[in-house]
Amino acid sequence: MPAPDDSALVPPSFREAAGHAGAWPFEDARKIVGRIARTGQKDVIFETGYGPSGLPHIGTFGEVARTTMVRHAFRLLTDDTVKTRLIAFSDDMDGLRKVPDNIPNKAMVAAHLGKPLTQIPDPFGTHPSFGAHNNARLRGFLDQFGFDYEFASSTDYYTSGRFDAALLHMLARYEAVMAIMLPSFRQERAATYSPFLPVHPETGVVMQVPIEIVDAAAGKIAWRDPASGENYTTLVTGGHAKLQWKPDWAMRWYALGIDYEMAGKDLIDSVKLSGEIVRALGGTPPEGFNYELFLDEKGQKISKSKGNGLSIEEWLTYASPESLSLFMYQKPTAAKRLYFDVIPRTVDDYLSFLDAYPRQEAKEQLGNPVWHIHAGHPPAPELLRHEGRGTAISFAMLLNLAAVANSEDPQVLWGFLRRYAPDVTPRTHPALDRLIIYAVRYFRDFVRPAKTYRAPDAVERAALETLAETLLNLPQNASAEEIQTALYDIARPIPRYQDLKAKGATPERPGVSNEWFNMLYQVLLGESRGPRFGSFVALYGVAETRQLIADALAGDLIRRHAEFLTERGGDKG
């Protein structure tokens, strides 16, 4: 999802529509436009932060993805006349306070608690330090998906002297910073607090100790080791000390001239305090907004140390990075549960937005998530051509094809699709090929084990028998629309499925309720919901659907699924 370099090719209609676009990335980008109008600056710096005390997780990706969306909206609003940069900053000089739950060699890491992350051995054994390992994980992921960013390491910036001038300036403003921070603490914490944390010259631990002497002219602080009672004097420059994280955040904004950074809602108070410190230093806090946090299946906040919720790797096992970007785009200020069940719906939402994009006017396109996901250049949707019509294949459709075929083989699904559209191949439809692979994995791990088939009652049995007979009498190449119409006509006379409140319904020609289709999903597919059934039959095949009905009426679907569950339970045992 990189920021493209061909803004000059953007149609004038897009530039005009962008000024009034209501999508949240444009709303945030307009804040930055207002900022540069006040300052006259010719470049803008975006920043995202990462605390590498735990492995990178989806929230980390979300912050970079969302910031990139705002950056691209800003580029369109300014006709790309303002230089932009995105810094992905890692606070890898932070002292590790606890051992994460989801790493190996915990005892080895525990022996180094309190040291900067870049001074702790890598428990995975692949990098010079734990911080380096987690930084590499983050960069590898961001690089894999084309983000345009500059990586920055806190350790590098502190030890190289890049922050020295800002640190000395903050030391000179020590009392002003303390006046901002101390009211935010309880009395006991306030009595020992200092924004500067010296690195112990012997143990290497980042020390949380009171500062006894502040010598701004010499750029030094004096402190006492509470364990040994020994006095030390430490330079605040050159990586000999670092800042507590709120002053550190403020110093970074000031030193680097950050113009935009978003943060989670749990950091609202921290953003305010850091903003006050920036002003005390003579700078201006960045623009930004506070996004809601992700929750796991139980409604608990996702934590990188606990490893709960979905990981980046888990999402990408079952769905595309574009679908993950859509999840990040949608309602960023609303709390959302992030677990496996959201994947199919998100994938199909993405495909629906992609399918609609070519038919939309510029204003609608700028409000379409795929414009933001693909930096203004979404790919054309891949359609199956049948009888002169284009059909988009959904994730739900593929899951149900896998379900009725009871197959985890992608080639079986390709067989159904080629029968419907003979010219389709993985080469002509590479995105569909990837979608099929995702679908069979998701079917194998989540759908098949969770299926619940039920037997039809007398009314449902009669309706299914009528459906089987109707399918037999349809034309050989009946379209999905013709099949769907036949489905409505079967259900319309059955009182249980009549809907007199449907649009255009009359007593003579009632509408058809969703109960009819819910029954088909439950009895034939073992699901509570499913795809448009006419399209499903057209893809799966009329003869195959009639056999599916026969198997359901004979109880074979229930029996075979019970056998599968028994066998699967035995394998697990």
Q: How many E strands?
A: 16
Average pLDDT: 92
Give a short account of the largest sheet.
3 strands, parallel
- Please report the distance between the alpha carbons of the first and last residues: 43 Å
Report strand order across the widest sheet. 1-2-3
Question: How much helical structure, as a percent, in the residues?
Answer: 40-55%
| Proportion of strand residues | 5-15%
Question: What is the rounded Rg?
Answer: 30 Å
Any low-confidence stretches, pLDDT <50, length ≥5? none
Number of helices: 25
Broad structural category: mainly alpha
Tell me, what's the shape? elongated
Overall description:
This protein is mainly alpha-helical and 573 residues long. It is 49% helix and 11% strand. It is built from 25 helices and 16 strands. The strands form seven sheets. A three-stranded parallel beta sheet has the order 1-2-3. Strands 5-6-7 form a three-stranded antiparallel beta sheet, with no helix packed on it. The longest helix is centred in the C-terminal third of the chain and has 21 residues, at 430-450.
